[in-house]
């Protein structure tokens, strides 16, 4: 059964409106974690009826914005070569992902307020798996410390990244210095303690 041109046109318009709304949410929440649905509707150039027709609550829209940013970040990070020395991989991963994390800091702040903490962790699970796997390989190759669980090291790195992003947003850290500082801190956290070097 074929669809009428009018119905197909309405569906295309609906998809276009939904895309505009998510893009507007990313932009508004990126500037202000407390941006309202009205702010986002104005940014998208749509009315409240259209906005709520696609996203029935602010929570749903905040989640869609975070999912969009995480997907964009995943595309960038997939291109990072992690096959060599895990220390080089960690530095490349941090430096490549830094800008994305900084841009997402305000959106993440909105998500942490609007969404259950378990949901935020669930959405981050796939991107963070890349870090966990790299740390475990570094531990297996004895270039990362093994006295602390990989999951805990990854959690510490997560807090370093988002803490630095918060400082950039607050004007306490120069964004041009942040990638180097964060990479150095990440490597320091994972480094094998000097007392254990050369021991079995």
TrEMBL record:
Keywords: DNA-binding, Transcription, Transcription regulation. It comes from the Bacteria. Residues 15-73 form the HTH tetR-type domain. The keyword Cell cycle does not apply. One of its GO terms (molecular function) is transcription cis-regulatory region binding. Residues 36-55 bind DNA. Signal peptide: none annotated. Gene3D superfamilies: Tetracycline Repressor, domain 2. PANTHER family: HTH-TYPE TRANSCRIPTIONAL REGULATOR BETI, HTH-TYPE TRANSCRIPTIONAL REGULATOR RUTR. This is TetR family transcriptional regulator.
């Amino acid at each position: 059964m074929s669809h009428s041109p009018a119905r197909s046109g309405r569906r295309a318009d609906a998809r276009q409106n939904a895309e505009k709304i998510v893009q507007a949410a990313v932009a508004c929440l990126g500037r202000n974690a407390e941006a309202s649905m009205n702010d986002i509707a104005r940014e998208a150039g749509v009315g409240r009826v259209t906005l709520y027709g696609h996203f029935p609550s602010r929570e749903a829209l905040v989640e869609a914005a975070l999912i969009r940013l995480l997907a964009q970040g995943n595309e960038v990070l997939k291109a990072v070569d992690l096959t060599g020395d895990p220390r080089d991989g960690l530095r490349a991963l941090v430096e490549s992902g830094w800008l994305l994390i900084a841009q997402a800091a305000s959106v993440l702040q909105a998500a942490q307020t609007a969404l259950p903490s378990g949901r935020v962790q669930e959405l981050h699970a796939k991107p963070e798996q890349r870090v966990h796997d790299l740390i475990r390989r570094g531990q297996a190759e004895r270039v990362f410390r093994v006295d602390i669980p990989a999951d805990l090291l990854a959690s510490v790195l997560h807090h370093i990244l988002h803490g630095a992003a918060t400082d950039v947003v607050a004007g306490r850290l120069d964004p041009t210095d942040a990638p180097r500082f964060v990479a150095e801190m990440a490597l320091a956290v994972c480094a094998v303690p000097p007392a254990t070097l050369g021991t079995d």
